[in-house]
Amino acid sequence: MTPDVRQFKGHVQKIEDGIVAMVSRRNAMTFTFNFISPVASFDRNFWQGYSTRTVNEAVNNTRVTRIVYEYLGTSTKQIFATARGAGFCEFEDLPSYHQRLLRADEPFS
């Protein structure tokens, strides 16, 4: 993948109970609106919210979905290890805490 394909631009803003990020890919090929807020957890390192895609409505097209972020800290070793293991996976393969936060069995409203 070339660097220009990986280029994203956007705007991040703190709001009352969370963070909003508006992000677009190079040449505005796609655009997302993301909202996350902190979750009460042991280390206060989890954030949950949702992401929306700006695309036309279609019958079989998901435009809004829940998201979970985990703050990894400042350890470069841990960050790179996590990045190298990143990618698509089955819901059942996620840690149980992530599954609980994502609530895949509940419709988004």
Protein architecture, described:
The chain is an alpha+beta fold and 109 residues long. The protein has one domain. The chain is 15% helix and 36% strand. It has two helices and five strands. It has helices spanning 76-84, 96-102, and strands spanning 8-15, 18-25, 31-38, 46-53, 64-70. The chain has a five-stranded antiparallel β-sheet. A hairpin with a 7-residue loop joins strand 3 and strand 4. It is globular. The mean pLDDT is 87.
Features:
15% helix, 109 residues, alpha+beta, 5 strands, globular
What's the quick description here?
The protein is an alpha+beta fold. The protein has helices at residues 76-84, 96-102; strands at 8-15, 18-25, 31-38, 46-53, 64-70.
The dominant shape is: globular
- Residue ranges: pLDDT <50 for 5 or more in a row? none
Strand order of the largest sheet: 1-2-3-4-5
How helical, in percent, are the residues?
A: 10-25%
Query: Any idea what the radius of gyration is?
Result: 15 Å
Give helix and strand order, one letter per element, not per position.
EEEEEHH
Helix run count = 2
Distance between the termini: 36 Å
Total separate domains: 1
Return the average pLDDT rounded to an integer: 87
Q: Give the DSSP E fraction (strand runs of 2 or more residues).
A: 35-45%
What is the β-strand count? 5
Largest sheet: 5 strands, antiparallel
Class based on secondary structure composition and strand pairing:
alpha+beta
